[in-house]
Predict the structure.
Amino acid sequence: MSKKETIWRYILNQALEKHVLTFTQKEIAGKFQYSTSTVFNSLKAPRKLGAVEVTGRFFRIINFEKLLILWATQRNLEKDVVYSTYCSEPARKIEGNMPPDIIFAAFSAYRMKYNEAPADYDVVYVYSQNLVELKKRFPTVKGIKNLFILKPDNDLKNFGKITPDVQTFVDLWNINKWYAKDFLDALKQKFNL
């Protein structure tokens, strides 16, 4: 993920989980060890769309949904795939066989957080840097790929064992499966969008 996307994830998550809507560019730059110009540049597109309002040193989210959709449309999930394979097991069994240092994403993240699945799913997405262990457990097998390992950014581990809802939404948006829409609709209801 780009630096811009890590900033968007952070401010969207703060808005959703903690109802914080106002930030300073200096605060964000310090949190991520980014330059203030990186933060400033990350706000250009959201500002143009009317998703954020920038005044002096402060900025605030004025349209959560616009910023979320902006991120979703700019996210390139395929670029972050570092390994994929076919597993003959059902999705829940694949999830159960994961090593402890992974972060569940997409369908698995939704199901694990809300203890429900709006539709049956047969693919698993996880973030991990430990490809050696994953390849031992899930070797390369011919077939339609249903396990995707994504490269995490440095900040993702701070959210726990599952992606935050805003990232789950954005990742689901980028998955071309018919049932992704069911998960997106269910997540929108959780957001009250």
Observations:
- The chain has a mean pLDDT of 96.
